[in-house]
Specification:
It contains 16 helices and no strands. It has about 425 residues and is mostly helical. The chain has two domains: about 290 residues, MetI-like (MetI-like fold, Orthogonal Bundle); about 55 residues, no CATH class.
Length: about 425
Amino acid sequence: MSEKSVAYVRTEMAPELPAPDNSHGPIAWMKHNLFSSIPNTILTLFGAYILYLLIPPLLTFSFVGAVWEGEDREACVGASGACWAYVKAYFNQFVYGRYPVSEYWRVDIVFIVGALGLIPALMPTVPFKRENILFMLIGYPVMTFVLLTGGNLSFEDYLVEYAVLFAIVLAVGVGISVATKSNPKPVALTLGAIGIGIALILGVMSVDFGLEHVPTDRWGGFLVTLVIAVTGIAASLPLGIALALGRRSNMPIVRLVSVIFIEFWRGVPLITVLFMSSVVLPLFLPEGVTFDKLLRALIGVALFSAAYMAEVVRGGLQAIPKGQYEGASALGLTFWQSTGLIIMPQALKLVIPGIVNTFIGLFKDTTLVLIIGLFDLLGQVQTSFTDPNWSTPNTSHTGYLFAAIIFWVFCFGMSRYSIFMENRLHTGHKR
């Protein structure tokens, strides 16, 4: 009896078959994400019902029943939707406040140059990034200050105080470098370069460019919102990093000062800080010495935000494994080299969500400056409600909706950029 062989060897690849219908497509996505279980199904249906209650009335108010053209309140009286004609009439005040109409071009240049400099700085593949960032950190603030205020300021009365302050900062920097066993020469050179740079900046601000002087009490609207937000964001990150390093320092005095600063500012509401800067601080100044109200608010907001930023950065520093510090020491790196090249980049990458969350909170908190007489975007919107020419039942709703849209666009943009940077800098393995 012979045995017949049933062995089979495939000589070509089997054809690819389509995935099962229940594993791809919109129906499969909905089944996996929205209706995967009974609790998820209940929550999905409840969320859909809430959207059904909110979205149609909002669209009806914003677009269907809205009034887009008109010269006064008569165009919006009796309308069931938003009065966008009122926003159009007040748009310049919402953006510029009481800034002189003939000088709007100065604010426009600040906005345009800021956008043209910020967008390439946020794009990782754009060339000349270092030069662009240096311009945004040094050149752009000076240009903005000169354009918005008019420049031609006098600093002669403060030259002695500036020299004394610079000498103190230089001595403290050299002392810290010696205490941390670092070479004091680079620290002295760096602080000296910073001092010379500040002197040059003050010199530029003192030049008469022939521009009309515009006091800050005439600023308002979106201009004030951006000035406070950008200044607070730009100042809080480096200050927060310095405070976080100081709180983790081995030097008791530096650590104590950092802890006291952080805990003090975190324990005081921002409204109290603004009141102190606007009302109480002038009482402690010598007679005849005054500071601009907006400048006092900027300093208060920056210090307040820096305290929160310090704790965010400190959380990232604590998340760095001890082996990273030991590896840096094994390579013979100094404290500042290991911090700048190894530790801090990893720490900041870990706390990107916390940093952006602080920035978003700061951007929204700019509306609090209204209580000290600074009219930001929301303050300017509220002020417009007193105009009898546009007094209608829907005017206030339209103004608040307009302000909400502006704030949402900027906050959502920061949130999406945060997600982009997280994905780009992610070096782990995601499932």
